[in-house]
Each structure stands twice: as structure tokens, then as C-alpha cells.
Design a protein that fits this description.
about 130 residues; alpha/beta; four-stranded mixed beta sheet; 4 strands; about 30% helix; globular; Tautomerase family protein; Tautomerase/MIF_sf; Tauto_MSAD
């Protein structure tokens, strides 16, 4: 169950949708998430009231096509699957949204089962006394 946040600069609704599809499909393909396990926050920043900042860190030249993808998920996946995820997100973001792979910045944050409530005020992955 990943929670995905995608932030892009001056992205119209079609581009945000394409980026959301790219990330979701990559998660399904590389991490084995079910196709109906989609929880995304898609945000476009206009450059005036909201902005994205970036530099050419580690020799990667970024420009205003930058997309930040923050994924929170339960811990336990091996590094090779994470590398496959990063690669696939970049490939699909390019194919679906025209985003250059150099502009796809991904950060995974891992947590435990008890860190999730999927609704109803219950920790569905880590139930405890009185329903969790």
C-alpha cells in the first residue's frame, strides 16, 4: 500500500494524470502492488504561489521539467527492486508525460505496518485490541 505524492512545475491536469499513471504502473510492475491499490496526491506548482527548487546535484542537469515523486510504503523490499522501480518510473514518465528521465527525482520512505490506517480509524495491517 503505497502513498504517492507527485509535485510538478506548471503541469496541466493531463500531465499530472500521465505522471500518476506512470508511477502507479511502475509500482504494480516492479513491486507487485495490486492494480486497485492507488493512493496519490498530484500537485502542480505555478512558480509564483508555489514553486519547486532544484540544482544540478551529482552531475544530473535538471530544468523546469522537474518532477518530485515521494513514495511512502511498508519496509522490506530489496535494493534491486527499488532500482527497478526508479528506472521504470523514469521510463514511463518519459513515455506518458514527456518528462526527461533526468528530471524524475524519486524518494522512498519506508515505515512499518502499524504506521498505516486505511480508514475507519483502524490500523488494518497491524490490528490490536478493540479492532486496532
Amino acid at each position: 500500500m503505497p502513498l504517492v505524492r507527485i509535485d510538478a512545475l506548471r503541469a496541466d491536469p493531463a500531465r499530472l494524470d500521465a505522471l500518476g499513471r506512470a508511477v502507479h504502473e511502475a509500482l504494480v510492475e516492479t513491486m507487485g502492488f495490486p492494480p486497485d491499490d492507488r493512493f496519490q496526491i498530484l500537485t502542480s506548482h505555478d512558480g509564483r504561489t508555489g514553486d519547486l527548487r532544484f540544482d544540478d546535484y551529482l552531475g544530473v542537469h535538471r530544468d523546469e521539467g522537474i518532477v518530485y515523486v515521494a513514495i511512502t510504503l511498508r519496509a522490506g523490499r530489496p535494493a534491486e527492486r527499488k532500482r527497478a522501480l526508479y528506472r521504470r518510473i523514469a521510463e514511463l514518465a518519459h513515455a506518458y508525460a514527456g518528462t526527461e528521465p533526468r528530471n524524475v527525482f524519486v524518494c522512498l520512505t519506508e515505515n512499518t505496518s502499524a504506521d498505516w490506517s486505511l480508514g475507519e480509524g483502524v490500523a488494518q495491517y497491524a490490528p490490536g485490541p478493540a479492532g486496532g
